[in-house]
Amino acid sequence: MSETEPVETDTGPTGRRPWPLVALALVLVAGLAFAVGRFSTFGVVASGPNAADIGFARDMQVHHAQAVEMAMIEYRATSDETLRAVAYDIATAQAGQAGEMYGWLVNWGVPQAADEPLMSWMSEDSGHGHGGGSDGSATDAELREAMGMATDEQLAALREADGTQQDCLFAELMIRHHTGAIEMVDAIQRLGSDARVAQAARGMAESQQREIQSLQATRDRLGCG
């Protein structure tokens, strides 16, 4: 090989992680987190779940799945290295947390899904306007909006956008998404009974609050409307 020839690496010509490797990493992280959630309490004595703990684990898996989806859309397309790093962190962290929550439900011996609407476990959280209303009349789309989740139309717009437009939309949608997650964490702190769930939820809120600050700073830098 000539000394002037470039040396190829497995990160590609720009040094970025190829997204198929990121997808593989998500699977491995989620699998490891499932095993940890299934067999370990992270040194925290679990007092046993109540309905709120179970509902939180189910609904937050749904919430995390969309965050991973949005993060992977942004990761594959953006040329902004800050957003690319944030998207990578969101995708890997939330895939792992989803695997952990899956493991909790297995360990508790309850189904991964239930017939009740999203956020039903929050219905006892009086004064916070969640749980689908007193008559349970809220639609699934309305409940997802209350959780800060993006609509199908917004996800399609994120996929179709490019450049700064896509970066700004990703930041906007993810800030709203994280804000909804933090509200769910606040509720489980009041309503839950399992110490392991409370500890993990606090960690979610702390990391997502940091990401909100980073995304807000990025929006300001990009001049997003």
Protein described:
With 225 residues, this protein is mainly α. The termini are far apart. It contains seven helices and no strands.
Low-confidence stretches: 1-14, 38-44
Q: SSE order, as H and E?
A: HHHHHHH
- Percent of residues in helices comes to 55-70%
Number of strands: 0
SS field, number of helical segments: 7
CA gyration radius, whole angstroms: 19 Å
* Shape assignment: globular
Terminal Cα span: 51 Å
What structural keywords apply?
disordered N terminus, 225 residues, mainly alpha
In short:
This protein has 225 residues and is an all-alpha fold.
Annotate the secondary structure layout.
Layout: H1 19-39, H2 51-77, H3 81-108, H4 140-146, H5 152-160, H6 163-191, H7 195-222
Helix pairs in contact: 1-3, 2-3, 2-6, 3-7, 5-6, 6-7
